Amino acid sequence: MEIANRQILITGASRGIGRAFAKVCAQDKAFLHIVLRQRDEEIVKELQEAGAKSVTIYEADLSSRESVDGLLAQLRDVPVDILFNNAGILTGGLLEDQPIDNIYQMFQVNINALVQLTHGILPGMLSRKRGKIINNSSVSAYMNFPCASTYAASKAAVAAFTNCLHLELKDAGVTTLLLITPAIKTRMFDEIETLYGKNFQVPQESMSPAKYAQMIREAVLHDLPTLEPAGLTGVGLKVAKFIKPLFDFEISRRFRRNS
Ligand SMILES: NC(=O)c1ccc[n+]([C@@H]2O[C@H](COP(=O)([O-])OP(=O)(O)OC[C@H]3O[C@@H](n4cnc5c(N)ncnc54)[C@H](OP(=O)(O)O)[C@@H]3O)[C@@H](O)[C@H]2O)c1
Fold first, then answer.
1. Catalytic residue among 58, 142, 151, 212, which?
2. Predicted confidence (pLDDT) at residue 259 exceeds the cutoff of 80
3. pLDDT tens by residue, 201-224
4. What confidence score (pLDDT) does residue 258 get?
5. Ligand 1: which atom is nearest the Cα of residue 18?
6. Which residues span the domain enclosing 82?
7. Mean pLDDT on 155-166
8. Which of 40, 62, 186 has the most ligand 1 atoms within 8 A of CB, as the residue to mutate?
């Protein structure tokens, strides 16, 4: 799908991957609708200067169902062409050490809000026979590391949800793009060491959000159903999917239950 002149809705656009992709879409002269927890005029200015046709901010806390209801009500008359479900939270560490409130909040943002937004936006896309839903999953959905139990479960849910929709939307004019996102150098990436580092030797390689945003752009323009990592992470992903005992053996060597 083209990005130029399209109405693009992006969650988690305040920083990281969401902000980088918003900038790429602005450079392509799209109409941007960005979801932030708090208004930020700096972001509007940045996107306008980059070339956006328009920038509209929606304030919403995706950890609240009522807030997502309110967001959908505000979007009622917006003919969204591309929905990028990007916002996410990281949880991690040994399961018994993870506060249950954090786990609930993470599932709400990472999967419930994503499903609710898709549920609300999809009917309009179907009636216009045009649309794309981009869901940000993670390599953790398939590469199941220790210390990632809750976060990986949310991202596996995102992957399964998107794969099912992909089949369900055949010939409907609406497509999906599943991002099996590798390590990207954002605030979330920095949190991995803090949450996992005590028990698990975390891989250090990462890509810039700007570079990853360009890869997402290419995947949108070429209507790819999935964006998978290349390189070493790509090999690791294939091992995790197809030779699981080898993956588990290798990963278990990096894990210590007691630090
Ligand atoms: N970075 C990686 O290595 C990596 C790898 C795999 C997958 N991903 C996925 O990529 C997506 C983007 O992550 P990122 O790396 O760009 O992380 P990030 O820099 O931490 O950005 C997370 C974004 O989500 C928003 N968000 C968090 N909680 C929210 C809430 N309750 N309501 C509304 N917005 C909320 C944040 O907004 P605030 O500024 O208001 O907090 C922020 O814009 C996530 O879904 C993540 O799981 C990232």
1. 151
2. no
3. 987 789 999 999 999 999 999 999
4. 80
5. 16
6. 7-252
7. 98
8. 186
104 catalytic? Reply is no
Domain with 202 in it: what CATH number?
3.40.50.720
Question: Which whole number is the average pLDDT over 18-47?
Answer: 98
Ligand 1, CB within 6 Å, residue ranges: 12, 14-18, 37, 61-63, 86-89, 109, 136, 138, 181, 183-184, 186-189
| pLDDT reported for residue 204 | 79
Which atom, in ligand 1's list, is nearest to the CA of 67?
A: 32
Average pLDDT over residues 68-77: 98
Confidence of residue 161 (pLDDT cuts 50, 70, 90): very high
Smallest CA-to-CA distance from 184 within 155, 159, 213 is with: 213
Is it the case that residue 64 has pLDDT exceeding 90? yes
Ligand 1 site-directed mutation target among 11, 17, 67, 179, most atoms within 8 Å of CB: 17
Residue 198 belongs to a domain: yes
Residue 259 within a domain: no
Each residue's pLDDT tens digit, 198-207: 999 987 789 9
Establish if 258 belongs to a structural domain.
no
Is residue 257 a part of any domain in this protein? Answer: no
User: How many domains, the chain?
Assistant: 1
